[in-house]
């Protein structure tokens, strides 16, 4: 059942539109409002699939209704109803986010096609939102310890802003998850999330990887190539293990942060970029600065917000939740039944020294599920989880 709201101050037009839509499809549930103010109250209190809105109305005109709807419920398509003298305004409403406009008196075919297309688009938006939420679960942070709760609270506050974030912590603690959560809860969530592992790229290639290059810039540069900053335009770039970046590349990153511009290797042409930068490191950057290996000015540009991610040994209370999460994930991946871990097995896992952190725990859980009995016991942990 599709819910459609008609906002129109002329009763005759309302009745015509209602009659056309109701007779066209029995699954259309049509409601009416006689002015913009009443229409906005209904929009606030109901979940509509489509709004048909007149432009010139008392109390609150159609442009104001459109702008207010876009703010509180941007997923609802709004089709403007325009009189002959309102055509210029109707066209301008398209720039403000209106789905389309129809002229008075409404042409039957034009009206019905517009309504069908708008409802199809709403369904697509809803489905994309559902899929996005489903995909985002792969980056879910598991845990209820004080440290993890604090990180989640910081993310909720920081994500909607444009503040740069430096995530610190040893290998395997989940720094990448923090970065993904920041992106997915930000205003840039619909833009790209580009990851760069600075430690995995040779120092002589890091600048080309980040900023791109022009043909002939170096021996193997056979054609122009865009860099990661350009690829992340409108979204987020995550510079993982930034402490391993060369000083030359650091200087270019600093310029990109200061001026929102990059230049490809071998070119002096500036390219504007709109990118939010998140960075992570397993190193003590203040010590690196003292040793001349990291630029202090870049550090202060990146570390607007600092999020330290605790080691697993510092959040042992989360191990039961993590084991349950990984058990379900491994069973799903392998198409097998979920194995239960006995209380003593969990207790034994909590006593381990997890130098490899979450990543190591995940591997151990998979090993125990494959090699352990029908129920993973303390004896299984002693046999198969040893270092």
Structure description:
It is a single chain. α3 links the parallel β3 and β4. The protein contains 16 helices and 16 strands. The chain has three domains: 2-135, Rossmann fold; 142-310, 3-Layer(aba) Sandwich (Rossmann fold), CATH 3.40.50; 313-384, Helicase, Ruva Protein, domain 3, CATH 1.10.8. The longest helix has 29 residues, at 108-136. Strands 2-1-3-4-5 form a five-stranded parallel beta sheet, sandwiched between helices. A five-stranded parallel beta sheet has the order 7-10-13-6-14. The chain has helices spanning 11-24, 36-45, 62-72, 87-95, 108-136, 146-158, 175-184, 206-211, 228-231, 247-259, 285-290, 296-302, 319-334, 343-351, 357-371, 378-384, and strands at residues 2-7, 28-33, 50-54, 78-82, 100-103, 165-168, 193-197, 212-213, 225-226, 236-240, 261-262, 271-272, 276-281, 305-308, 340-341, 375-376. The chain is an alpha/beta fold and 387 residues long. The N and C termini lie far apart (58 Å).
Order of strands, main sheet, comes to 2-1-3-4-5
Shape: globular
The count of β-strands is 16
CATH topology value of the largest domain = Rossmann fold
Instruction: State the low-pLDDT regions, or none.
Output: none
CATH architecture descriptor of the largest domain = 3-Layer(aba) Sandwich
The first-level CATH class of the largest domain is given as Alpha Beta
By helix and strand content, what is the structural category? alpha/beta
Distance from first to last alpha carbon: 58 Å
Organism: Leeuwenhoekiella nanhaiensis
InterPro entries: AAA+_ATPase (IPR003593), AAA_lid_NorR (IPR058031), CheY-like_superfamily (IPR011006), P-loop_NTPase (IPR027417), Sig_transdc_resp-reg_receiver (IPR001789), Sigma_54_int (IPR002078), Sigma_54_int_dom_ATP-bd_2 (IPR025943)
Domain Sigma-54 factor interaction: 141-370
Domain Response regulatory: 3-119
